[in-house]
Write a structure and sequence with these properties.
It is built from 23 helices and 24 strands. Strand 7 and strand 8 form a beta hairpin. The longest helix is centred in the middle third of the chain and has 39 residues.
Length: 717
Amino acid sequence: MKWIRDKFKAQDALKIQEAFSVTALEAQILARRGVTEPEDLRYWLLNDLASLRNPFLFDGMVDFCDRVLEAKAEEQTVVVFGDRDADGITASVIMTQALQELGTKTIVQLPLSDESYGLSRRAIDEAKGYGAKLIITVDCGITSLEETDYANSLGIDMLITDHHLPGSWLPDAVAVLDPKVNECEYPFADLAGCGVAAKCAWALRFAMTDLYKQTFLLIHCTLCKNETILIEAAKLENLKVISRAREEVIPGVLIPEQSKIFAYLCCDLPIYALDADEEKGLLRKAFGKGIDIELVELRGQFESRMPFIKSKSLFALCTLSKANRFTTKATELDTLVAMFSSFVSLYYPGLGQEYLEVLDLVAIGTQCDLMAMKDENRTLVKLGLKSIAATRRDGLAALLGLLGISGRELGTQDIGWKIGPVLNSAGRLAQAEKAAELLLASSPADAQKAAATLMSLNDERHDLVESTWARVMPMARESFEQFEGRFVIINDPDINRGIAGILATRILGAFKVPTIIICNGNEETASGSVRSQGAFNCRDFLSRYEDIFIGFGGHLHAAGFSLPSSRIEELCIRISEDSADIMASFEGAEETISIDATLGPEDLKASIMKTVDLFEPYGEENPQLCFLAQNARLTKIDYMRSSDKSNSNLRLTLEYGSLNWTAVYWAAGDQVGRAFDIGDRVDFLFTLSRNFFNGSESVRMTVVDMARTGTKRIYEE
């Protein structure tokens, strides 16, 4: 493993430390990870609802809300159709509950048995049988062109909400909400399906307020040092700024009819100002005493909900605003716009504090779907983790209890290792509706029953994996040899496709080469899972064979595909022919690990966990912090699996400074006596996390790599 320590500009770290009141260590890590721009730092250092973007930035959100409100008014039945994985399940529940809050009759549909991904004619026919006039897809639908046309032919309208890549054409739906659509105006493309559903839920709540589709102006005037008047105004609709105007007026020089800002203000729309009388005075100074533009004062309403602004000018509020530190172009008008949005979220709790209760499911779905843990996803997951710990969902509370993680602070590892696998187990065994039933449970008794059922399915999934594992390992060894140690490909129609990804991950761990498992969903169609590590990009690899696939997609190290069963042999032959060329580009490439910081003995104290917590949530594009310790003494080695020491996990005792640290080192038994041994001075890379056992909390040190001191070169890049 190659140890890399990226260089950074010291002045960048110093600016971050001084501007945002973080420690020198935290500022250096941020700079080393390339997070230096204020707009990016917002999502690392300012975790609040105000950081979330307005859902009406989605092109089509108004059409979406209008069609749902029509369904409500006409008492139409609405079907929510999702996917079988954790993202699809959480998105389905979020959308369903948002509709139920409106009083709309809503039915949840998820793929049955071995149905392929996405909307099906069977599901549409079933929706027709329910008398549905509207289908809303979540976490799917962006490529369902034929299915959408079929629904339309039956008199069923379609609303598509998804986050996957679209094809060349979009479905003929009433509205399509997908941040990856090129025409979409939403500025962040990496929302999960549940994230898009949560945006719709907020928009529907807003659509029930008096402000929905109301257009108005916000105005602010400033008397400049040269006695000119700077007039700024913004036009808002659904709290979204749709236009701006700005003009510096010299009093007595410009008649109103010549002023662009004056024409902008004369628009027959309500105009709001923080202090109406002061603003009117400046407008008269600019355009003459005969000018009387009607303004509505906001201060009284603002102070009733935000008492901290009392007696403060807009200039003072702009200076004091924490949010303004995270932008290089904030004006006093921007502060007024932000204050108006904050006031609305306080006036309508469903848009503010109560909306936090939706984010528990967003955190789960986003983390489980391996979405990039950057930008808005960080805020959604960070707030969502707090909502999970304090959840008011009977079903989720019951599940946390059975998992033994209730009543404490949770991290992304709790989602990835505990909550997510249980929810996914239902979908893997073609019973995704069981997970939805858990999250929609309306009583503690129903919740306990649903949680027990889900835990039983998880055990069944585990047993199925173990029994299948024993059967496929000989196939894996044979394939590994056949492909000369480059690939492992297993084609077995008897493998349950719900566990194909799990098996591929385990085989990858055993053979350290890209692994493909193909299983037959039915006689006509097969599906497959790909897993890899290092620089091997699964999605790019699959794109070489897109002419064979019915569909494919995924991420850097995990992807999936479907294809006609008749073309499985063709795929295997082509991969075999290409394997040497594909892997040649990776030959000699050593696995790398980036060092975030070097810690001396004096740095390893309880306060270091504050830094670890700051960088939560961890996930894609934001791996756990990796620290380097040098010249420690290895004083003890315990094997955690005595039957096979060569593949055993290790428990190590390390003397570093005046303290002894206990660390775990997974599957490193074969390195004892080779890379290190008892009594050696060692350098090692490690992560830190919180460990909970029997009600007590401790810090867990996990070794990532270790070598005798002085034998490992650190590459500066």
